[in-house]
Design a protein that fits this description.
Layout (H helix, E strand, L loop, with lengths): L1 E4 L4 H15 L9 E4 L13 H21 L6 E14 L2 E13 L4 E5 L3 E2 L2 H10 L3 H9 L9 H6 L6 H17 L1 H4 L1
Parallel strand pairs: 1-2, 1-3
Antiparallel strand pairs: 3-4, 4-5, 4-6
Length: 188
């Protein structure tokens, strides 16, 4: 089984490896999963600010890695895209902004989305991202006083004091997006 990921980011690769290992617990075919990770460009904004942008970005990454492999004369069993960013909602008159992500998985014919959990983003961080137009990763590096946080624990790790990581959030989204494939009898 070959699974192609439309990203070369380490947290996303770790998430896919972990998700495959967990699925292998209910479907032994997944123990032989081979992963291919390729950086791809999509039409998504650098810092998605709503679910529509996030979902388009995730699907766009899966489609882009499919096209990239096709150009090399290769096929995968699954094409995967992951996208994280903000989603804001007004609840009882107050604006709430969450960090979460979406996964999209396609076998080339069918595709499904999965949603990651969400964590509240402090208003001061939201304001810095929105005011400057920079990615959350750049702002979180400044807030944490570190470099390239996104490749390790991500903003998730900073916001949760390491209890949740970027890879863990994407793993959850992947498990949800892969469900129609590893639990096909229920989804038929």
């Amino acid at each position: 089984m070959l699974i192609a990921l439309g990203s070369a980011r380490s947290a996303k690769i770790m998430a896919l490896r972990s998700a495959c290992a967990r699925v292998a617990g209910v479907d032994p075919r997944w123990k032989r999963a081979e992963l291919v990770a390729r950086g791809v460009e999509t039409g998504a904004p650098r810092m998605p600010l709503n679910d529509t942008q996030l979902m388009r970005g995730a699907r766009g990454r899966a489609e882009a890695v499919r096209e990239l492999l096709a150009g090399e004369g290769r096929r995968a069993d699954f094409y995967v895209g992951l996208e994280g960013g903000f989603h804001s909602i007004t609840f009882e008159g107050r604006r709430e902004t969450f960090l979460h992500g979406w996964a999209y998985v396609s076998d080339g014919a069918r595709g499904y989305f999965g949603h990651a959990p969400a964590v509240t983003v402090p208003p001061s961080i939201v304001a810095r991202v929105e005011r400057t137009g920079r990615e959350l990763g750049e702002v979180i590096d400044e807030v944490a006083g570190e470099q390239d946080v996104r490749s390790r624990q991500g903003a998730w790790g900073v916001l949760s004091r390491g209890l949740l990581t970027r890879a863990m959030s994407f793993e959850t989204a992947l498990l949800a997006a892969f469900a129609p494939f590893y639990n096909a009898r229920l989804y038929e």
